[in-house]
Amino acid sequence: MKAVEIKKDIYWVGAVDWAVRDFHGYETPRGTTYNNYLIMDDEITLIDTVKYDFATYTLKNISGVVDPARIKNVIINHIENDHVTSLDCVMDLAPNATIYISEKGKKGLERFFDLSRWNVKTVKTGDTLTIGKRTLEFLETPMLHWPDSMVTYAREDKILFTQDAFGQHVASANRFDDEYEISNSPVELEDAVVDYYANILMPFGQMIKTKIAEIQAKGFEIDIIAPDHGLIWRKDPGKVLGMYLDMANGKARESVAIIYDTMWQSTEKMAGPIAEGVRAEGLNCQIIKLRATPTSVAIKEFWKCRGALIGSPTLNNILFPSVAEFLTHLRGLRPKNRIVGAFGSFGWGGGAVKESYEVFKQMGLQTVEPGIQLAYRPSLADEEACFEFGRTFARQVSEYHKGF
């Protein structure tokens, strides 16, 4: 890819990672991008760098616009490895540039690099940097999604550079949302946003609401939202802001995700009649088998639905390993405003359903109890009990959903 002008004299100079399929345990079937941005002004300014493996790509893109030695300022919005590990490659070519970073960002950056060789200045919310005819304003966004995180606003161009916020893991020859929607679909892009939020930003809903309110209170006019992953929002930046507010407020479909795994198909045979019971109450139902589905997809489907039923056979008196792994991922994401229940099968002794409810309570989720567990393979009478359990759960989901 070559540098792409996103507004006059402002360029995307990042890299497209078509091949990545595992992003710190989060599956990325669409690949991803590492976006960073070059502003041509009296003081040439680079916003963020890229993952080390792609350093040559960003340097080539920068060089296609300007000699990297002329860069005067490097702004680091976020110090995660995929955004900062090529910083030394940039600074080798622009040794006189000044780095601007949050205080917590600087402390973290010291764990990557020897900062004594560079000029590093810390900034806080409300600080500005004049680079010629442009003024850049900084807004700290701690825990969105790391302690160091911040965003940078280009006043005159009305561009908000948002590091990981509002991004998506999408590799594409397109750089902008409107271009991508023409060659793919708006639904696919929206799904990528939900997938990204559910697997990365779910724990930070309250912070997201606070920071969006802070942006609005500052009166930032926004023509473009430029994240560090995926497509750049220029068609309707307000759309992704609205999606984030909806997700931060716990918006979900009045539907049920049945997420399970099975050892000898007994738990699997329970999932079908449970789903039929849910549908009998008029709710849509999604069935997800964990070992046949990436964990990140199961997390996304859980997040999209108001209710979820987790199914597990008992192995050695505890949860089946794949179900335990899923619940561990989910517990770290700290979901809210969801109602859950559990089902499963066992041989000589149960335990998985009980443990599921213990994990639900650790997460503070609303529960429908008791769950349903069966010995060995379900009989016709057991299947009828599963159907009724699905109906009961669906009614509880509908009642709970009324509160949102």
Automatic annotation (TrEMBL):
Signal peptide range: none
Residue stretches making up the Flavodoxin-like domain: 256-394
UniProt superkingdom: Bacteria
InterPro entries to which the protein is assigned, alphabetical: Flavodoxin/NO_synth (IPR008254), Flavoprotein-like_sf (IPR029039), Metallo-B-lactamas (IPR001279), ODP_dom (IPR045761), RibonucZ/Hydroxyglut_hydro (IPR036866), Rubredoxin-O_OxRdtase (IPR016440)
Listed GO MF terms: electron transfer activity; FMN binding; metal ion binding; oxidoreductase activity
Xref: SUPFAM superfamilies: Flavoproteins, Metallo-hydrolase/oxidoreductase
Protein family according to the UniProt entry: In the N-terminal section; belongs to the zinc metallo-hydrolase group 3 family.
Protein name: Rubredoxin:oxygen/nitric oxide oxidoreductase
Organism, scientific name: Geobacter metallireducens (strain ATCC 53774 / DSM 7210 / GS-15)
